[in-house]
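Protein folding task:
====================
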Amino acid sequence: MAVTLPLGAVEATLLAGVRFAAFLVIAPPFAQRGIPSMVKLTLAFGLALAVAPRLDQEPASSTGAFVAALVLQAVAGAGLGFLVALVFSAVQAAGGLIDLFGGFQLATAFDPMSMTSGAPFARLYQFAALVLLFASDGYQVVLAGLARSFDAIPLGTSPVTGALAESVATGLSQMFLSAVQIAGPLLVVLFLTDVGLGLLTRVAPALNAFALGFPLKIMVTLTLGAFAFLALGGVVRALTGDAVDTMLGVSP
């Protein structure tokens, strides 16, 4: 029994699979080393089969053109994955700000899962965001947005455009803004704590208030950080929507 497959459909599936695979290698939560590479490849191939029927299935004119299209889709997937990673890095950046102002920056440790170094709150916020993405099915929203990206960047279209560069620049500014908004209330309290300790030192220098400042700031950070941690679910939900909007906003 001979099975004949249309060349255009096979090429469209492969091109879509390359975009999905490049995206899964970079974008959270799939970029974690704890997820095996075979799982990522299988997921990319399955998603490519799902979206292939609605893609342009015109076969390439030559082998060189098809290889160039594969490279183009790899760049598109990597670029979209970087934009999503940029959006969710605001959570880790917020944790880093809390570590910096709360005095936990000296406890920096290497994370073999993400191949980065971070202090306790930065790592806590990063892992909590990843868990919430899986627990709330936020990863499905991200994958659905990636599937819809074929409308914004069709097969055979170059993703290297001014819109992509503009999205990266906007994403950087939004990342810092989101990090400050997430950690802002706690940072204000820690700043006021430093101001109070400074005033206390001027009023009663013999108390040596700064010797008590370090344990006091740790206590304030741990106490109020627990309340800030409770709002992380809403933050991840909002960032998921921002990530999808960012992907769909990139168009040639």
